[in-house]
Amino acid sequence: MRAVRITRHGGPEVLQQADVAVPRPGVGEVLVRVVAAALNNTDLWTREGAYGRPGAPTTLSGWRGPIDFPRVQGADAAGRVAVVGAGVPADLVGRRVVVDPAVYDADGPDANPVGLMGSERDGGYAEYVTAPAERVHDMSDSPLTDDQLATLPTAYGTALGMIERGRLRAGETALVSGASGGVGLALVQLARARGARVVAVSSAPKAGAVREAGAHAVVDRAGDLVGQLRAAAPQGVDVGLDVVAGELVGAGLPLLREGGRWVIAGALGGYDVAFDVRRLYLHNAQVIGSAMHTPAHFALLADLARGGAVRPVVAATYPLDRAAQAQRDLARREHVGKLVLHP
Length: 343
Fold this sequence. Notes:
By secondary structure, this protein is an alpha/beta fold.
């Protein structure tokens, strides 16, 4: 089969297409013929080795540690079950599925992700990928296209994990940073679907697309951000859904209402942050780290997708041999929505 792999950390030039053996599903696993594979920032950062390690933030590392090269990239995959391994019901063959890419630390619905397809195990930049049977979700009845299904795992899984960990409720006000990106747009859609009032931060040229996704108000990240946010949410913010971090954390915490929650799942603006700790303990506020999702979160996401409650935006598609160009385009951040490969 054709696959796009990395053999070392580096720029897009380290992506190499190769002919490799079709993987065999082990006990309790399935083989999925990949129809669509979405791109994410985690693909870029894994390729670059940008995640660092505890106590050594500049050390080259995959999502959770050293990568076993060569590694097939790609955290997101949707397709059809082609073969089942021992112990897996045969009626899964032919099913249209989306793959939960997380490797969890335990069994059970509330397990934490400690690994990821495309980093700790081979991913979806290939014609076939294996996955544990309990991590493939039957989407045969979903109204979403294969391309839309492929956008769900990382972006929408991360977004729903943030919303669940932040305990966002109907009627509350949510602030969404980086709202035109993959996770940001998912946060806007999911928070709106939950009944929250959504105040989004985006660049001015992309504000229309963010409003179309469901934001009640969009503020320009290049302007007086705090002033705009206070005007858009004069009563304060209940939950900050932040994929930017950096200076936004210190600026945003004073915007929280009593008992507010600030959830961080990215560091596009920088991982070294500073804030006034009094804004936490004097107002019973919380800063919450959120990495991906739990099995329970992903099951909820699958239910939403089956019912068509979310409608992912696909900005562009590419053949597999243009994976490097697709990653370059992703890094430029000139699009709104998701980029998708067709293996």
